[in-house]
Amino acid sequence: MSRVNPNLAAALRLLPQERPVKPLRCRVRASAVRRLKGGTPWVFDRTIDEAPDNGRAGDLVAIYDQRRQPLGLGLWDPDSPLRVRRVSEQGGSPIDGDYFLQRIAGAMARREGLLAPTCTTGYRWVNGESDGMPAWILDRYGDTAVLKLYSTVWMPFLAELLPTLQELLPVARVVLRLARKVQAAYGRFALSDGLVILGDEADISAAPFLEDGALLEAQVIKGQKTGFFLDQRENRARVRAAASGRRVLDLFSFSGGFSLAAARGGAMEVFSVDGDGNALQQAARHFAMNRDDVAVAACEHHCVRQDVFAALADFEARGERFDLVVVDPPSFAANATSVEHALSAYAHLAQAAAKVLRGDGRMLFCSCSAHITESAFMEALRRGLGLHWVSGGGPYGLPADHPASFPEAHYLKAVWMQAGS
After folding, report:
1. pLDDT tens column, 262-274
2. N or C terminus: which one in the chain shows less Cβ crowding within 10 Å?
3. 380: pLDDT strictly greater than 70
């Protein structure tokens, strides 16, 4: 990559430059100690007894228990109830260029050999806390990398991070994506969501990449997450393997990843259902981009812009039946207080989807909420489907390029369900 975006360079000069010489101190309650010792690198504001005065986003904090025994170093996050994000269990060196070089290079090395580079060029390079760098991820889409920041704690370190990205990443450009609260905090510094911060600033609203030989596009400037849902790669492969000769219904289809996988696997007919018209346009484009695949060309693809529950009711009323149904809803549980509502929604959705499934058909049902446990998820499906339904495989979790080193990181669950005897 050639250069830092001049707009970004100007913005970095406006960011606060001074930092405390020594780490600030933070004393936590027993509940936080248990979580930290159990591997969860988060300290919530309600579990802090002694907080630093006037701590700023990104300030290093030394964490102590009630007996003042050290529990590691973290980054202070005054803009979030998740107040401290631990970066080291033992203390350690300052966060500088060497810190980023060591951790990013290590994360990239751990992914060597996981995927065939000639047929898959979309994958995760850095997975936040599980790679020792909480609240940010780095995804690759062919020649484009996307850095997404979920917390303000990393903004003061961008000047140290950029040279490392320039040195290590074999891509043409890096796009910066910001969570809403980060945009709100730093918009005044012209650090906008979707800014090309390194390299070629050509129009890359859609970054092409390969997944298992299929040509796809990530909406890296304005799309959800970093532009595509890379974490479902292995489940798309499972759908492809099960789709031959099938009539397939893809619910919450987004840009048609599961739909295209089914077509590539030999599905006769695929219905992509989503309420987002732009997402369905991208699904249609993905089919057009892969028409040189004989199976894709032979598959009849329909885009249905409709609420999923309404679409299921219409399919049922018309007597439409499918051999394979994929249900991949958005997170119904954004926080712990919405868990019961989410479980009820899963049960109702499974019940509705089962009504349009042939008697010997299969359903792949997914949950992407960290607040939903595997056991609660399975119980919700059985409540909606009935006791005669059984698991036909799974639950499946995250792919290897999305390592999960603590319980809350295991957010993805997917299971095959089918009618039993």
Report:
1. 999 999 999 999 9
2. C
3. yes
C-beta atoms surrounding 245 within 10 Å: 9
Could you tell me the pLDDT band of residue 232, with boundaries at 50, 70 and 90? Answer: very high
Token readout for 401 is: 């390029």
Instruction: Identify each DSSP E strand in 193-312 by its residue range.
Output: 195-199, 207-211, 214-218, 247-251, 269-274, 300-305
Contact of 381 with 365, CB cutoff 8 Å: yes
> pLDDT of 114-127, one tens digit each?
888 889 999 999 99
Domain formed by 229-419, architecture: 3-Layer(aba) Sandwich (3.40)
Distances 372 to 63, 334, 349 between C-alpha atoms, Å: 29, 10, 16
Tokens of 273: 């259902």
In sequence order, which ranges of 290-385 are alpha helices (DSSP H)? 294-298, 308-318, 339-354, 374-385
Q: 């969570």: which residue's tokens?
A: 179
Q: Which CATH number fits domain 6-14+97-207: 2.60.40.2660, 3.40.50.970, 3.30.750.80, 3.30.379.10?
A: 3.30.750.80
Distances (CA, A) of 190 to 57, 59, 156, 186: 18, 22, 14, 7
To the nearest 10°, report the CA torsion of 145, 146, 152, 154: -10
Q: How confident is the model at residue 80 (pLDDT cuts 50, 70, 90)?
A: very high
Domain 24-88 has CATH 2.30.130.10: yes
Contact 145/123 with Cβ under 8 angstroms? no
* Average confidence (pLDDT) over 5-34: 77
Joined tokens for residue 291: 């028409």
**pLDDT at residue 191 above 90?**
no
Structure tokens at 369: 């909420």
